Structure formats: C-alpha cells, structure tokens
C-alpha cells in the first residue's frame, strides 16, 4: 500500500488538472477499492478487507464527462459562427459572362438575343419621300410603297410600286433652251411617271443597340433588286410667260412603257416587334428611245401635221390604230390651249429618235409595319 500511495503522490505532483482522473483508475487497479487516509504501517500485516465504495467518491466519477460537456460547446460555438458566412441567394450567385447582374452596386449592359424573327412575316412600307438626287436634265419627286414577304430571317420577296407626282425637266435644260436655243436630246430628258418592280431583298448583317436605355433597337443593312415596267412622258413645250404676264404651262406627251430594273441599299431600324424605319438609296435604270408620242409614230404625226397645214382638223388625218388622235384635238382643259399646237412639237421629237440609258438615283425614306 505504501508503494501505491507513493506512486500516486508522484503522479499527482507531475500532473495538473487531469491527475484526479488518472488516480482513481490506478488505485482501483491495485486494490479493487479505495483505502482510508488514516491507515498506518501496521496495517500491512492485517488481512485486506474488501473495499466498499463510499458515497463521497461517486461525484468524482462524472467529473470527466462534466468537464467535457462544458468545455466542448464553449470552444466549438464561436468557431462555427465566425467561419461560415450567411448563405447567398441564387440570384446573387448567378453570373452572366462573369458579371454579377443582381448586384445593386454594379451596372452591366449586355446585348440580348433577338426576341422575335422576321421569318414568315409580311412588311408593308410607305415611302412618302422618294427624291431624285442625280437630276441633270430631269427632276422627280414622288411617293412609293413596298410589300415584302420574309421567307427567312435574311431573305424575302418584295414588290415596289408608286409614282412621281412631280416630274419635269430641270432648270438647266430650260436655261439652255431660253439662252442658247439648244436642249438635251429627247432620250436624255425622258421623264419617269410611275413604275412597278418585283424582286428580292437580302440582309447581309444585322445588329442591336440600346435606344434611350429602355428600348432595344434592331438595325440591319439591306440590299434589294428587281425588275418591272414603268410609264414615261416627255415635255413638248416648256413653261413660258405670256405677253399679259400670265404663265403658259408646259405641255407633255406620253412616250409609252419602259422596261425597268432597280438596285438599292440602305438601313432598316426596327423598334419593337411591329414598326420599323427605312432609309435607302435606289437606282432605277430604264432605256429611253422616243419613237412615239401619245401612241402616234412619225408617219401618224406627219399626216396630222399635213391636215393642220391644210386647215383641216387632226381628226381627219389617216392614222394607225394605236395613235390617240383625241390627245391632239380640241382644247386642253388644264392649260386652255389648243392641243393641235403640240403636233409639230411631237413630230420634231420623233423625226430624229435618240437612245439613252437613264439612271434615276433616288433617296427613299419611309416607315414599315410588320404583321
């Protein structure tokens, strides 16, 4: 027993807080119980009595779990609170091209995909302004319209039609007639009155941009081409001033239909799904050869001119079936002039016919509706 207590004393001196936890198992391993503190050396000769656990030692047994339960929560709770951040929402964690779109402190501008397609849709375009920009001997100003069916996103069929409600010779040609007594050849000063052309339209590329920070605008570069027919006329007598100060208006003769071809290029700006604006430059090409005026050829006009020289009305002349004699007979209600005065002018126009290929380059500005 002395050896046991000496060993316990040494262990107690070398351990700190955990020594009482280790002493109890060591003593119980040697004796099977606890020994009284007041035993002496003479007790070694006495037979050992079975040790009975005292009530005072029972509270020491749960000392270890008590220390564990009080220490572990205290040290673990602060570590969990400081190391784990609050969970982020799915919108805050979402990134588009590396940009936090749902961060209120970050402003990000992105290009959205096109929300709708033009494929299978119709587009009606009105060009209230169609202005000729290359007028040398002629001037044209009119209104055009176009119907486009988009077979695909970048390809469509179109039909364009309209008229030049203002068409006349340029001031340059009038100045040549007045000052130099010369004028441009009939083919070079032929006037375009109306036309209908059918063809195709393609969109080589298109893009998008933000419009006033709230609307996404779609723009595209368009190319179109087509062919068709159109009406022409030619000026017979220019506008002039009478002796009384009034104005004698110009007179015109119908020169028939012409085959026409057109090429165009421009930009189309679409706002929303229904409306678009267009700005294009188009070149309408047509042949110009003046051989008939109001359907009357050179022989018909000579017969009418002979009738007039003989003091007979133009209606008495023998003309072909295509010649519209009534256009040279009577009085023009618009000008108040005798139409027969245009017979020698028309004859001089077709007596020596000229040929030319005219390019009518116009600027077209309009608005479209898609459905």
Tell me, what's the shape?
A: elongated
Can you give the helix content as a percent range?
Answer: 10-25%
Strand content: 35-45%
H/I helix tally? 7
Uncertain segments are 1-12, 14-52, 54-81
Structural class: alpha+beta
Mean pLDDT: 76
State the strand order across the main sheet: 1-2-3-4-5-8-9-10
What is the H/E order?
Answer: HHHHEEEHEEEEEEHHE
Total individual domains: 2
What's the layout of helices and strands?
Elements: H1 2-14, H2 19-31, H3 63-83, H4 90-93, E1 122-132, E2 138-152, E3 155-169, H5 171-180, E4 191-211, E5 215-237, E6 240-241, E7 247-248, E8 251-271, E9 275-289, H6 298-309, H7 342-351, E10 355-370
Antiparallel strand pairs: 1-2, 1-10, 2-3, 3-4, 4-5, 5-8, 6-7, 8-9, 9-10
Helix pairs in contact: 1-2, 6-7
Structure in a nutshell:
The protein contains 7 helices and 10 strands.
Task: Describe, in plain words, how this protein is organized in 3D.
- The chain has 371 residues and is of the alpha+beta class.
- It folds into 2 domains: 2-83, no CATH class; 122-370.
- Helix content is 22%, strand content 38%.
- It is built from 7 helices and 10 strands.
- The chain has helices spanning 2-14, 19-31, 63-83, 90-93, 171-180, 298-309, 342-351, and strands at 122-132, 138-152, 155-169, 191-211, 215-237, 240-241, 247-248, 251-271, 275-289, 355-370.
- It has an 8-stranded antiparallel beta barrel with strand order 1-2-3-4-5-8-9-10. It has a two-stranded antiparallel sheet with strand order 6-7.
- A hairpin with a 3-residue loop joins strand 4 and strand 5.
- Helix 1 runs antiparallel to helix 2 and helix 6 packs antiparallel against helix 7 (342-351).
- The longest helix has 21 residues, at 63-83.
- It is elongated.
- Residues 1-12, 14-52 and 54-81 have low confidence and may be disordered.
């Amino acid at each position: 027993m002395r050896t046991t207590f000496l060993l316990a004393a040494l262990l107690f001196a070398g351990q700190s807080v955990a020594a009482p936890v280790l002493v109890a198992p060591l003593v119980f391993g040697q004796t099977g119980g606890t020994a009284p503190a007041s035993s002496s050396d003479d007790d070694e000769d006495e037979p050992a009595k079975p040790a009975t656990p005292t009530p005072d030692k029972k509270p020491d047994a749960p000392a270890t779990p008590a220390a564990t339960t009080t220490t572990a929560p205290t040290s673990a709770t602060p570590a969990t609170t400081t190391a784990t951040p609050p969970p982020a929402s799915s919108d805050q964690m979402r990134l588009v091209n590396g940009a936090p779109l749902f961060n209120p402190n970050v402003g990000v501008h992105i290009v959205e995909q096109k929300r709708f397609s033009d494929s299978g849709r119709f587009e009606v375009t009105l060009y209230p302004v169609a202005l000729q920009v290359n007028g040398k001997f002629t001037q044209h100003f009119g209104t055009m319209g176009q119907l486009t069916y988009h077979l695909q996103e970048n390809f469509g069929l179109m039909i364009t039609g309209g008229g030049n409600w203002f068409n006349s010779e340029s001031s340059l040609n009038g100045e040549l007639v007045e000052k130099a007594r010369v004028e441009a050849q009939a083919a070079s000063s032929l006037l375009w009155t109306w036309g209908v052309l059918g063809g195709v339209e393609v969109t080589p590329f298109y893009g998008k941009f933000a419009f006033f920070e709230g609307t996404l605008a779609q723009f595209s570069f368009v190319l179109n081409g087509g062919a068709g027919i159109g009406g022409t006329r030619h000026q017979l007598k220019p506008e002039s001033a009478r002796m009384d100060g009034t104005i004698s208006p110009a007179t015109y003769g119908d020169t028939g239909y012409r085959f026409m071809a057109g090429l165009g290029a421009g930009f189309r700006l679409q706002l929303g799904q229904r409306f678009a604006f267009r700005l294009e430059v188009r070149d309408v090409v047509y042949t110009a050869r003046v051989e008939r005026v109001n359907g009357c050829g050179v022989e018909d006009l000579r017969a009418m001119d002979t009738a007039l020289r003989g003091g007979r009305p133009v209606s008495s002349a023998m003309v072909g079936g295509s010649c519209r004699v009534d256009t040279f007979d009577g009085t023009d209600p618009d000008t108040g002039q005798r139409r027969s005065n245009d017979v020698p002018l028309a004859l001089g126009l077709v007596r020596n016919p000229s040929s030319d290929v005219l390019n009518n380059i116009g600027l077209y500005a309009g608005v479209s509706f898609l459905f």
